[in-house]
């Protein structure tokens, strides 16, 4: 995978960073940072959205066991509503890198934007399918966020969080209209904001 993207850095501590959960109407946005161990490669890393749930779970366990360092962080629903989803996503990424037990020498971030930080870094468009460390971060972030949305299903039954993971599906929008807005919904997002505003 890394053969698809070349970076002018071959020192220690190359971190990959990705986030999950920009589009949903509910739940935190979750980011992960991973420094893979070149001596313990993990086969099968790719964009988490292209993997089955079972494969993601298995790979996440390998990533946690074999990486030199990893961290999962977040920005809350309140922070999303205060900052907007882009800046909340960048904040979650900042927190993930800051939480690494090994400080990175270079950081590759999925997408076309970088958080404000002092690390040598660059964005990589579609990096979760081009850079192994970003793919690993994508997997950790998605496994974590999905598990949290499954837990929200028990806390707020009837919304279907376990199936749609907070995304604006027809079922989710219908449940919002019928059951109302919960504390885990993002009030700044248009469908939620419209419901709160009333007819």
Give the CATH level 1 class. Answer: Alpha Beta
- Compute the separation of the termini in Å: 51 Å
Total of helices: 7
Number of strands: 5
Strand content: 15-25%
CA gyration radius, whole angstroms: 17 Å
Question: What's the arrangement of secondary structure elements?
Answer:
Elements: E1 14-20, E2 29-35, H1 53-66, E3 69-75, H2 77-83, H3 85-98, E4 106-110, E5 121-124, H4 132-155, H5 161-164, H6 170-179, H7 190-197
Parallel strand pairs: 1-4, 4-5
Antiparallel strand pairs: 1-2, 2-3
Helix pairs in contact: 1-4, 2-3
Keywords summarizing the entry:
199 residues; alpha/beta; Nucleotidyltransferase, domain 5; 7 helices; 5 strands; globular
Descriptive overview:
The protein is an alpha/beta fold and 199 residues long. It has one domain: 2-Layer Sandwich (Nucleotidyltransferase, domain 5). Helix content is 41%, strand content 15%. It contains seven helices and five strands, in the order ββαβααββαααα. A five-stranded mixed beta sheet has the order 3-2-1-4-5. Strand 1 and strand 2 (29-35) form a beta hairpin. Helix 1 packs across helix 4 (132-155) and helix 2 packs across helix 3. The longest helix has 24 residues, at 132-155.
Short description:
The chain has 199 residues and is α/β, with parallel strands linked by helices.
């Amino acid at each position: 995978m890394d053969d698809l993207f070349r970076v002018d850095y071959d020192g220690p501590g190359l971190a990959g960073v990705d986030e999950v959960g920009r589009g949903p109407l509910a739940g935190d946005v979750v980011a992960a940072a991973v420094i893979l161990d070149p001596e313990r490669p993990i086969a099968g890393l790719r964009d988490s959205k292209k993997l089955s749930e079972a494969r993601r779970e298995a790979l996440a366990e390998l990533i946690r066991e074999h990486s030199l360092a990893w961290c999962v962080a977040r920005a809350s629903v309140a922070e999303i509503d205060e900052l907007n989803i882009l800046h909340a996503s960048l904040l979650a990424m900042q927190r993930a890198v800051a939480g690494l037990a090994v400080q990175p020498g270079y950081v590759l971030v999925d997408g076309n934007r970088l958080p404000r930080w002092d690390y040598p870094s660059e964005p990589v468009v579609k990096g979760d399918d081009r850079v192994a460390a970003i793919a690993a971060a994508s997997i950790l972030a998605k496994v974590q966020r999905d598990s949290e949305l499954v837990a929200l299903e028990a806390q707020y039954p009837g919304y279907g969080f376990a199936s749609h993971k907070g995304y604006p599906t027809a079922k989710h929008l219908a449940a919002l209209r019928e059951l109302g807005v919960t504390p885990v919904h993002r009030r700044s997002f248009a469908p939620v904001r419209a419901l709160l505003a009333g007819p």
